Amino acid sequence: MTATAALLAFTLAAAILTITPGLDTALVLRTAAVEGGRRALMAGLGICAGCLVWGALAALGLGSLLAVSTLAYDTLRICAAAYLFYLGAKLLWRTFPRRKAAAGALQSEIQSKAGPETRSQPAPATTSAAGWFLRGCLTNALNPKVGVFYITFLPQFIPAGADVLRFSLLLATIHAVLGVLWFALLVAATRPLTRWLSRPAVMRGLDRMTGAVFIAFGLRLALEKR
Fold first, then answer.
1. Segment 167-195, tens digit of pLDDT
2. Are 177 and 183 in contact (CB under 8 A)?
3. What phi and psi, each to the nearest 5 degrees, are found at residue 18?
């Protein structure tokens, strides 16, 4: 297989994997709907940065440690499960009636003391753009299944005679670029629905659905047997 054929084949396979619905898609869509497009794009960039981390580790051979060490794999798996459970629980906690009522009362009090120009402004986002980048990055970087995927997937597309390190990094970069393009498309798709998505009931529903997805993924990762 030539280098060109390998790149084309990997790009096609990576594109199919990128658009397959999963945890990353749920994170970006929820962030775009509730926190805004900029933070959603930052979360997507963080996810792609996590892919680059695993791609670099796999290229350097360090990622193969997960394939041979049960302790290393299980340690990272439990950390990832705990992190996903934390994110899911935090999203669900935001939707509790008492907490929403308290937040609404506080917001009403603030608006009653503010001028008209302040009343028209939306409530500030709960997490900064940099915070969403970090969340996205940790979501992928802590997931050992992503590492194992890179270890087993990338070598199939490295042609004979190619520099393994450079070609592996090139493949990981292609995967990350495809991810950025896909997440940008998802964010753009939510723009026409901004007014509907900004309704409190819809936002609560999105938080509950995404939180449940995060917890489900975390539990599955924690309970899975290698």
1. 888 999 999 999 999 999 989 988 887 77
2. no
3. -65, -40
